[in-house]
Amino acid sequence: MGIIRNTIMESSGSPNSHKVVFEKEGVYLHTSSKRNADQSSLIPGIVYLVDRGTETTLEWRPLEEVKGNAAQFLFTKKDTSNNEEVMTFDPGYEPDWAVISTIKTRPHGDATGSRPAAVGGLSPGGSAGSLHSFSVPLSELHSLRRSRFSLGRSFMVLTSRGGGTFPALHFHRGGTRGLLRALQRYVILAPSPVDNRLFLVYPHDSSALSQSFDELQMFDDGTHDLVSRFIQDPYATTFGGFSKVTNFFRGALRPPDSALGRPAGSLGLAEDEPEFELISCEAALGPRLPVQRAEPLDKWEEHLDPEGRVLNPERVKEQIFRGGVSPSLRREVWKFLLGFYPWESTIQERQDILRKKTDEYFRMKVQWKSVSEEQELRNSLLRGYRSLIDRDVSRTDRCHRFFSGNDNPGLTLLNDVLMTYCMYNFDLGYVQGMSDLLSPILFITQNEVEAFWCLVGFMELVHHNFEESQEAMKQQLIQLNILLRTLDPELCDFLDSKDSGTLCFCFRWLLIWFKREFPFEDVLKLWEVMWTGLPCANLHLLLACAILDSQRGELINSDFDFNDILKHINELNMKLDLEDLLCRAESIFKQLTACPDLPVKVQAVLGLFSPVEAPLSDPSSQSDPSSPQSESRTADSPSQPESSIEVLTTPPSEP
Question: Which fold has domain 326-465?
Answer without folding.
Answer: Helicase, Ruva Protein; domain 3 (1.10.8)
